[in-house]
Structure formats: C-alpha cells, structure tokens
Write a structure and sequence with these properties.
Mean pLDDT of chain A: 85
Oligomer: heterodimer
Number of helices of chain A: 20
Number of strands of chain A: 18
Strand order of the largest sheet of chain A: 11-12-15-10-16
Largest interface: A-B, 43 and 35 residues
Strand content of chain A: 15-25%
CATH architecture of the largest domain in chain A: 3-Layer(aba) Sandwich
CATH class of the largest domain in chain A: Alpha Beta
Strand content of chain B: 15-25%
Radius of gyration of chain A: 27 Å
Largest sheet of chain A: 5 strands, parallel
Number of strands of chain B: 12
CATH topology of the largest domain in chain A: Rossmann fold
Radius of gyration of chain B: 20 Å
Mean pLDDT of chain B: 88
Structural class of chain B: alpha/beta
Largest sheet of chain B: 9 strands, mixed
Helix content of chain B: 25-40%
Helix content of chain A: 25-40%
Low-confidence stretches of chain A: 174-179
Shape of chain A: elongated
Distance between the termini of chain B: 38 Å
Shape of chain B: elongated
CATH architecture of the largest domain in chain B: 3-Layer(aba) Sandwich
Chain lengths: 481, 289
C-alpha cells in the first residue's frame, strides 16, 4: 500500500507493508515513525474493530519504507489499516494497485482529513497512480492534483470500494469556481488618503514592498489591509503553488481549496522566528511562505524582534526560505510582497502636535532596529501625516474592483513591453542621485517604481514626471538617521 | 590632532578668545581638536542651540540658520548634542563654513555616540573644544558648565526650540548675564517644544525671523542668494500654496486641484531646486533669498 510523507513541501514515496505471523498477538510499527505515527496503533485497532472487521490475532508488523525517512503525523492511519486488512485477506490484495491513501482514523472508524493531502496526491500523480483514497473533506484538494479522489467518510466505505461493492458519489469536483475577493475590505470605505491610495496602486502594479510611516491613527493599517483586494487573481500555476503550501499547514477551506487570490498574512509582532520564516522539528512553512505570491503585512514593524526582521532579508532577496534542522532541511518558496507600518518613534508622538517624548536611549534602539539594510528593501515609503479634519469627510471613493482592473492592465503592459527610461528622466535621475544622496540600490529602486508608474499611465517611455513622482517615495532621511 | 598646534589654550595664550575671557568665570584651559584655525574662536560667532528632541520645523530652522550664518562668515557655535545642536553644525558644514562644537567631556570622547561621524566632519574644517582634559567622561552636571562656554564664545545666542526648563534656556541665562544678545525663534503656541522659546520672547528676547536679524547685529551682510531654477507651471503653483503654510500632499491635492501624481512630481522638482523641504510627510517652503 502506498502513501507519501512530506519533506518540506515535497512528497516522498512511502510504502506501507504489513506482515502477519503466528505467535503471541502483538502490533509493532517500524520505520522511524514519530509519536503521532506510533499512536496510529491504537486508532487503527479501534477503527478496524468499530468497522466490524476482524482484528487479526497475530503478531503484526507494519513497516514504513524507506526505513530511514522520518515519518510524522497521523496521515498514515488509513494506509496502515488498509495494509493490515489486505494482509489478513479481508480485502482483495490486488485491489490496492493503482491506489494511494491518506487520512487519519477516528476511534469509531471515521476517516478524518489531514494537512498536506494535496502534496500527497501530487506525489501519487507523478508515480502514475490514478486514485487516492482520502477523507471526503480532502477530496476537492486531492482533485486539484489531477488524480481521482475516492472520498471516504468511514473505513467501511474504503473496504466496500476495494471489494468492488461500492462506488463513491461522482460529485462534481471541478477546480472550484471563480476567485473570490469578497473577504477583503474595500478601498471605497477609505475617505481621502489620495497619497496613500496612489502608493497602494503603484505597489500593486510592480509588487513593490511598501512602508507606511506616520503617527498612530492616520490610517496606515487600514490602507495596508486593502492591498490584497486590488491585486489581480493568481495564474493557475501560481495558485497551485500557493495551495500546496497552505495544504501542508492545513489552512485550506473545504469547499474551495484552491487559493486563487493572492494570500494575505498579518502575523502579530510577537511572532517567533520559526513562525515567520518557517521551522519546527520537521521544518514546516512559516508566515513568509504562507504569504507566497501574496502580501505579508508586518503591522508595527519595529516591534518585531530584530532577528526575525533580519531573517526576512533572505526571502526578500531570493524569494525562498531555506531552513535547516537536525531532522532535515527544506526550502520553501516565499516570494511575498512586504507591507509594513510603523510610527516615527517609539512613543508615536513624532510628527504630531504633541511632540515626541522618547528618551534618547529608546530612540537610538528604535533606529538601530531599523537597519539600513532592511529599510533599503522598501521600494515605496509613504509618510502619512495626521489628516486635518476637512479631509475626512470626502465622499464616495473608488472601489477596489475598479482599481484592480487598472492594476491588471498595467501589469500586462509591464510584462509585454516594459517602459524604458527616457533621456530626460535619465538626466533627472542622475541629478537626484547626487542631490538626494541615493545609494546604488536606491537608484535602482526609484527606476523600478518609475517603471510601474509609467505602466499605470500607459506610457511607452518613463517620462520625467514619472521619475519625479517615483522620487517622492524614496526613503526619507529621518528614518535612517 | 596635529602636533604642531598646542593642544590647549590657557588664559595667558594670545589666541584665547577675548569674548570668552570677558565672562564671569572663564575656563582656565581650552583643549582643542580639529584642523580649523584657532583664530576661528576670536571671529564673530553666533551660538545656535535648542532641544534634543526637536520637531522637523526646529530642525529645518536650525539647519538653515547654520548654513546662512556660516555662509556670511560667522562661526556657528553649538554643543554637538542631538536635535537642534547637530542640525546647526550640519547647516554650517553644508556652507563649508566655520563651526565650533563645545563638549561637556574630553575632546577625545565620542559623545554622543550617534555623532561620531559628525564630530569627525567638524574636526575637518572647524574645531571641537572642551575645558575638560582629554579622557574626561561625559556627565550630566558638566553640561550646564559647558553651556557657559557656548554662550561666552558667541556675540549672540539663538534658541531655536526649547521646552520649559530646557538646557538651552540655561545657555540663554548665561548669555544674558554676560550681556550678550539673546534671540528666540517664535513657535506655535500649541507646541510644547516652543514653550521655552515663546516664554523667552515674552521676557524680552529678540524674535528671530531670519538670519538677517543676527547678522545685522554683527554688522554683516547676508550671502547672495543662489539663482532660481526654472520650474514647471505645476511646481510654481504648488510653491505658491506652500508659501501660505506647510501642507501634506493630500492637502495640496485638495487645494491645488491637481492630481496626486502631479503634486508629488512637482514637490520633488521643488525639493531638487532647494525650494521645498519635507519632513514626516509635511512639505514646507524653503524660500531663496
């Protein structure tokens, strides 16, 4: 009987063999099974008995091969049960050909879903296996991999199916309809904030990292949360990539497992390093990877632990996180768009009428945390001063859907024919590098942003005005000194 | 420190600054660091001081004063502290002009740590001086004493921003005791950072509305203005609006009727032309004279 273990995001083939021999009745699982996997003994025994099948009173040995690969979790339960049933001739042994299985057993024999069903199914497809027995909840997820799921509620159904007595409902398991954007708050609810909205739109076009800085209560978080709503849907290949990651962590909704819209993750600033970049004993993906092809929002950015922030530099640069642990290493994709918000000083008073009351030590620590290397990763920095009252009663603003259409069109232009710097813009850039003390990286960043602005404007070339606007999003000196 | 120059001035030295000698308790020794000429200490000097936790407005004014005073040939004296002091030094350095930092510790101590680079730049064209021997640690009680030297070296003292009971007010007191002119930069009455300076104004300090006020006192002329750059129509429009009062981009969009991208581009144009400055998302006019 076949199933697949997860190593990072990769399926590894695991063959489950059961051997019954005469002797004192016993049950052993060998093959580097972890604790959850060892406990399968009790679940499998109860499950088989509850399904009114016979528990063979023999000396039972179950081997999970290859024996040197560490196996974790409860996803092997169903496979172990079927292997034992086949070995005791309760199901025809030949019937397991062309099948793989994944699922946890309840004590009463019900089949429960486990995380990573998509990855298991993908492993099966690559090995040419057509059918995957799984919990009915996982069926839609398994179908995404391009194999036929056999959705099960109970172990009895698996047995009936393999005996040829029962066929699962051929429920329509399409690739789950249209992308849904509904869950994200809409830009139409934001009054005023023209500068912020504009920055958000440019960031969406070029997938630029965005930093919103200003005193508390100026709408930084409110804007940041609306970024995913103006991002175009994911391409099919991207969607599968994201779904795989979310599957491993068990985050997929049952009905619509395919993650078709860019994911949005907003971890709290108390999050640990493994929670953000991934880790754990058998490395599992962190928030950075869950935000792959989507948005990672770090609210109150300077409140995060320094090592966590520094650890984000690798994925920001390479788009992947590689985690090495004693029990193995894994490389997770993590090409996310970083959006961060921050106050201008620890007390939040800077930029407000009240003024800042921070001690010099606190201020120094604050600035130390925002290392130049990290701040340099933001393409767009928007200073958000406190709006005066008059701006707050602006009337109906553009809805996210409208902005999204513009973003999509600009992205298409950007891919088909990226605008180049015009001679005028080039001379302005050279001028600005000198006068505004831009670093080499800063220069490249401004050019990238200008490119997105030109694409939004539908221009063939990056004009002087596009570059000038891009310069207004440069890192202000007060953030780095 | 070059070995050719005496590392220390005593009161008997010929180059001991006469203005400093005239104060109530002049320091017995002055230790020097930097390649600036000792004569700098005897030139007309203006002290520019203020709070450490200054606002962006205060920082802008301090820097501009530093620049304009230095350009007119005045030595800018301050205390190398964070905030106003540092901005005044930076402004003077921008004009390539003379500046003197008076320390409350040994001249070889890097204090404050954040200003190591600034101290080095000052040492290249100006002077760092202290009445304490090299190696003396910074201590809170030494700073008021240091302030008497700042006030003593200068013919006039400008307080840019100060809270009530700010250390900068101590410098103002020393200046008054020594019979020197004290200027205060008027600030918003709602800002805690301007309470000290506005109080000085009430007590009779001269309001400082531009570097010309101090220069007139010293009998000096302002340096000629730079030639104005050519600006686009939009930039001119935005400049007019900024001349009224400072504003955020959103406010400028509201008042100009221009699109947000046009306003942003116009502001960058003004920044490059030196006609506007930005801090914390608020843009201010920076008029050329």
């Amino acid at each position: 009987m076949l199933t697949y273990a997860l190593v990072g995001l990769e399926p590894r083939r695991v063959e489950v063999e059961a051997h019954l021999q005469k002797g004192v009745p016993s049950f052993a699982i060998v093959g580097l099974a972890d604790r959850a996997c060892q406990e399968a003994k009790e679940r499998v025994r109860s499950g088989i008995v509850s399904a009114e099948l016979t528990w063979p009173l023999r000396r039972i040995t179950v081997n999970l091969a290859p024996a040197d690969l560490r196996k974790e979790g409860s996803g092997f339960d169903l496979t172990i049960a079927l292997a034992i049933l086949a070995a005791s001739h309760q199901i025809p042994p030949g019937s397991l050909k062309a099948h793989a299985a994944v699922g946890e057993l309840a004590l009463d024999g019900r089949v429960r879903p486990v995380g990573g069903a998509l990855v298991v199914a993908e492993g099966a497809r690559r090995a040419g296996i057509e059918f995957v027995l799984c919990a009915s909840e996982s069926a839609a997820e398994v179908a995404l991999a391009g194999v036929d799921p056999v959705p099960l509620h109970h172990l009895v159904e698996a047995v009936d199916y393999l005996r040829g007595d029962w066929l699962p409902d051929p429920a329509p398991l399409g690739k789950n309809g249209l992308p849904r954007f509904a869950s994200c708050p809409d830009l139409a609810e934001v009054k005023g904030q023209r500068r912020g909205r504009r920055a958000l739109e440019i960031a969406a076009v070029g997938r630029h990292n965005l930093l919103l800085a200003g005193p508390p209560g100026t709408g930084k978080t409110m804007l940041a949360r609306r970024l995913p709503g103006i991002l175009p849907a994911l391409a099919e290949e991207e969607a599968l990539e994201v779904t795989r990651i979310h599957s491993v962590v068990g985050l997929l909704p049952r009905e619509h497992p395919l993650v078709a819209v860019p994911p949005f993750r907003a971890p709290h600033h108390s999050s640990s390093m493994p929670a953000i970049v991934g880790g754990g004993s058998g490395p599992s993906p962190g928030e950075a990877s869950l935000a792959h092809r989507g948005v990672l929002l770090l609210d109150e950015f300077p409140e995060f632990q320094r090592p966590v922030l520094e650890a984000l530099r690798q994925p920001l640069e390479d788009g992947v996180v590689s985690v090495a642990r004693a029990n193995g290493r894994a490389v997770f994709p993590a090409r996310f768009q970083l959006v961060a918000t921050m106050n201008l000083c620890p007390c939040g008073g800077k930029g407000d009428a009240a003024g800042c009351s921070c001690s010099s030590v606190r201020l120094a620590r604050f600035h130390e945390k925002l290392s130049r290397a990290l701040i340099d990763r933001f393409d767009l920095v928007v200073a958000m001063p406190r709006p005066r009252a008059a701006e707050l009663d602006g009337s109906g603003e553009e809805a996210s859907a409208l902005v999204r259409e513009r973003v999509q069109a600009a992205r298409q232009r950007l891919e088909a024919n990226p605008p180049r710097l015009s001679a005028e813009a080039r001379s302005l850039l050279t001028d600005a590098v000198e006068r505004m003390a831009l670093s080499g990286r800063g220069r490249a960043r401004v050019a990238r942003v200008a490119c997105s602005i030109a694409a939004l404007a539908g221009a063939e070339e990056i004009e002087r005005s596009h570059l000038a606007e891009a310069l207004s999003y440069r890192i202000p000196p007060e953030l780095t000194s | 420190m070059t070995s050719a120059r005496p590392p220390c001035l005593t009161r008997r030295s010929r180059s001991y600054p006469p203005l400093l000698e005239a104060i109530h308790d002049p320091p017995r020794r002055l230790y020097l660091r930097g390649t600036g000429s000792v004569e700098m200490l005897s030139r007309p000097a203006v002290a520019v001081v203020g709070t450490r936790s200054c606002s962006s407005y205060g920082a802008q004014v301090a820097r501009r004063l530093g620049r304009e005073l230095a350009a007119a040939g005045v030595a800018v004296v301050s205390g190398l502290a964070r905030g106003i002091d540092a901005e005044a030094h930076r402004g003077a350095l921008e004009a390539g002009g003379p500046t003197v930092a008076v320390l409350g510790c040994g001249i070889d101590r890097d204090y404050p740590r954040a200003h190591v680079a600034l101290a080095r730049r000052i040492a290249e064209v100006g002077l760092l001086i202290s009445e304490y021997e090299p190696g003396v640690e910074p201590a809170p009680w030494r700073f008021p004493a240091r302030n008497r030297i700042i006030a003593g070296l200068a013919a006039a003292t400008v307080i840019v921003e100060a809270r009530e009971r700010s250390g900068a007010l101590i410098t103002a007191d020393f200046a008054l005791e020594d019979g020197r002119e004290v200027f205060a930069v008027p600030g918003e009455i709602t800002s805690a950072l301007s309470r000290g300076t506005n109080e000085l104004l009430r007590l009779g300090a001269a309001p400082l509305l531009g570097s010309g006020d101090v220069l007139a006192l010293l009998g000096l002329e302002e340096a000629p203005a730079r030639s104005a750059a050519r600006l686009s129509e939009q930039a001119k429009r935005v400049r007019e609006l900024l001349a009224d009062h400072s504003a955020s981009i959103d406010e400028l969009v509201e008042r100009s009727g221009l699109a947000v991208d046009a306003v942003a581009a116009a502001l960058v144009e003004l920044e490059l032309a030196g006609e506007a400055v930005c801090a914390e998302g608020i843009y201010r006019a920076h008029e050329q004279r």
